[in-house]
Amino acid sequence: MNLADLSSNLLYVAFVAYLIATFVFGGAVKGNKEGTFNSEKRWGKVAITITLIGFVANLGYFFTRWGATGHAPLSNMFEFTTAFGMTLVGGFIILYFLYKTAVLGMIVLPVALLIIAFASMFPSEVSPLIPALQTSWLAIHVSTVVIAEGILAISAAAGLIYLLKVVDPAKKSKQRFWLEAMMYSLVLVIGFVVVSSFFSLTGYEAEFTYVDKESQEAAITYAMPPIFGMNEYVALTDGAMTPLVETPALVHAGKLTTVVWSVLVGTIIYWLIRLIFRKRISALLKPFVKNVNLQLMDEIGYRAIIIGFPIFTLGALVFAMIWAQIAWSRFWGWDPKEVWALITWLFYAAYLHLRLGKGWQGEKSAWLAVIGFAIIMFNLVAVNLIIAGLHSYA
Amino acid sequence: MENLQCQCGHTNPPGTKLCESCGRSLTEKEQNSKLVDMRYEGTARRSQTYNKSVIDKIWNFFSSVKVGVSIIVVLLVAAAIGTILPQQAFVPASTEATIKDYYADTYGSVGRVYHALGFHDLYSSYWFIALVGMLAISLVIASLDRFVPLYKSLKNQRVLRHPSFMDKQRIYGSGPAAEDTLEKAETKLKELKYNVRTDKNGLLAEKGRFSRWGPYVNHIGLIIFLFGVMLRMIPGFYIDESLWLREGETRAIPEVPGYYLESKNFELENYTGEGGEEVFGEALDRVGTVAKNYQTDVVLYQNSEDALPGAADSQEVVTEYPIRVNQPLKFDGYAIYQMDFRLDELKAMTFALTNKETEESLGELTIDLINPVDNYELEGGSTVELLGYYPDFSGFENGEPQTATPLPNNPGFLVELTTPETPEGETSFITIQNTVEPLGENDFKLTFLSADTRDVSGLTVRKDSTLPILGLGGLIFMIGVAQGMYFNHRRFWIQQKADGTVLLAGHTNKNWFGLKKDLDRVVEYASLPAYTDQQDEIDKVEKAEKEGETLS
Known about the structure:
The complex is a heterodimer. Chain A is mostly helical. Chain A contains eleven helices and five strands, in the order H-H-H-H-H-H-E-E-E-E-E-H-H-H-H-H. Chain A folds into two domains: 3-169 and 289-385, no CATH class; 172-278, no CATH class. Helix content of chain A is 68%, strand content 5%. In chain A, the strands form two sheets. A three-stranded antiparallel sheet of chain A has the order 2-1-4, with no helix packed on it. Chain A has a two-stranded parallel sheet with strand order 3-5. In chain A, strand 1 (206-211) and strand 2 (217-222) form a beta hairpin. The mean pLDDT of chain A is 89. Chain B is α+β, with helices and mostly antiparallel strands. Chain B has six domains: 1-33, no CATH class; 42-151; 163-198 and 488-551, Alpha-Beta Plaits (2-Layer Sandwich); 209-235 and 465-487; 238-343 and 458-462, no CATH class; 346-455, no CATH class. Helices cover 33% and strands 32% of the residues of chain B. Chain B contains 13 helices and 24 strands. In chain B, the strands form six sheets. A six-stranded antiparallel sheet of chain B has the order 4-5-22-23-3-24. In chain B, strands 6, 11, 12, 13 and 21 form a five-stranded antiparallel sheet that branches. Chain B has a five-stranded antiparallel sheet with strand order 14-15-18-19-20, with no helix packed on it. In chain B, helix 3 (54-63) packs across helix 6 (126-155), helix 8 (181-191) packs across helix 12 (512-526) and helix 9 packs antiparallel against helix 11. The radius of gyration of chain B is 40 Å and the shape is elongated. At the A-B interface, helix 9 and helix 10 of A face helix 4, helix 5, helix 10, strand 9 and strand 12 of B.
């Protein structure tokens, strides 16, 4: 087994460990039939041990891959997103030892699992670095950013727990709607993972040529049955599905097809859950947060941000500017990724002013933390995949 | 507005909420509330006091947190809008008209609207810069409005406070205590690294006051940063030039007087997947070619000091350096970056003057495509005269050959060929693979033999003297953030009345848990009366009321 194979096996170990730990944490915080929580501590200990095993394997993945590629594994969509899942778990482990909150594990671990699964849908082979990335600033800048984002995401997890507890699932409200919308969007990620894995395991491929927005002939390979066809497409693969709709050149029908498949499958999964349990997902999770100390969750959410914000400033703005000055001759160029780093920073600055200056604590603060996570995810997913720029790798 | 006279005799400036000297509540609101608002020590903030003149209104507008956050949110949304479509700098068009057409052609009506609203150049638009300016003003005014009174108040604070100030603190306790209590408390507090001051029968212990300045320090850092960004508008602070340098060529570096740069060689290297790169084989198979290195080997020359300006032999070699991505050449405050390249640009073309019929050659000539010579004398007495040179021939306009660019992408030559046989000369127009004879059939022609090519490096010449200022701003910001977030300002007031009763109050700007931990140790050591967290009491009552409501 070479280093690269060892690395991917360690990632599997971490994935399985996180999966098991999720359920153990869930069991720990659910309480027994009598409605007491005597065993929370004991099962919490078991769960954090499994999480630690997973995290060690996860670190093993990271450093063996570093050894295999010769550079910090933070250079493409797969590597960065996997590292994000890892720092999320790392942030949780630190907070667990500070506050002993098993319930945080029950939320953070499945989100980390989703993120790692999402990452695995991108090409994961060991790839070489283009000249701009060949510097130790890659490791310095990106690792600081990914650690900061992991910690900031913890505040969203704490916020989510807070909301799960305070939002009444029996009463129709805006809060109930948006909380469930969050759950739904998490299920859509499952949809993406399921549909991508299915078609990749069955080896689906359909090739087309098309005319791109600069009126140039181009080729594309679909990994899923093409619902949407590219502009003036010509099918090259026999027996492949004929696209239902042809899109104008501006729309990337290949990406749109992936999105629509994910939404379709995700929505089916979501409604299956609703049909089987006859409850909203947020209501399903309600029993797990019965024993949650709201003040503590608010505190954890705030703590995560005051730790994450300076690290984010350092990594995503200061180190980023230093590197940009060295590699691109200017420290700032309004590249979409730079702009979204600034947006994220401004958002958390607004959070801090609202919390410290306007007394936005508790529920308001929890909503803001969740929105912050949405911005981070947008910067990770949409900015890389949809908005083209200097940072679009993948 | 009039000054406020406190019962203790101290005269407070208008707008004061808590007497600067004794801490008594001066407003009705403060008198009626259970706990005093300690955020700015109950001092008079200008923005909360005056609202008459235009200046007052402007001051109050910018000192508001709500306004500051609103500006942040508007900036954030505007910045996001600018990423929906690429900014004009990233678009393959350079003139105003072509940019406009590009948006319309590529993005349809969405692009047309986007361009019409000016979003294609959003970040240098006046309104965006104005927003950043407003944020800067808000940073300054909001900070001054709070910092000045807070600083004065904390600097002049008295040890002894009125009991009504103490019992409205969140941490409060009172009760009988031994005579040596104050001394013991002082010892313990000093041990816990508090600054302790005593006055008659009272004590004030304080720790971490500097953390109160954190927000103002980080705002100063941001202001310095923005100031640095503004400085680049001033000539001399900032240079951004591009320099296309051909292999073998030496050119004066634009905007850098006295310096010259020669390119020895440009190199583009791709990953091969061999020789230690086998691990990348799979990735290279999938994506195709991946660049490994862009490099220009340069020699930097400088005019020697004692030489006459412009003299060719007066240049001294300063350094030889391989410029690569991430490894710019730095000298004297300037930096030169590897940014772009063109491979195999035509350098020179070699022709033979031949007789069309016999195909006999009368000699060869080489035309330099950058600085062509006009006359070429061949050995047998023939001459070729270059009447016109069109480096990037794009067609004829009114019978005149045109060139699209000054780059030798598609050279065209208008030549007159003179041989001993045709002394009056023949005119010929030559482009690659094509010859036109505008003045009738010729006997002789130029036959293309070979072409020399070379690579061209696209370099960026940069000077940015604002960088140290930006770095300083960033550093101060980070220090301010750490100062304000990771430290806190803790204070205890302890008084012993004549009858032995001890009053005890505590305040911190954050982390009440840490404050209580300190206080517990002091209470234990000095046998102080037990204290309560009055906020917790209030919360409990509120909670009980709430539950009472839901029950009934």
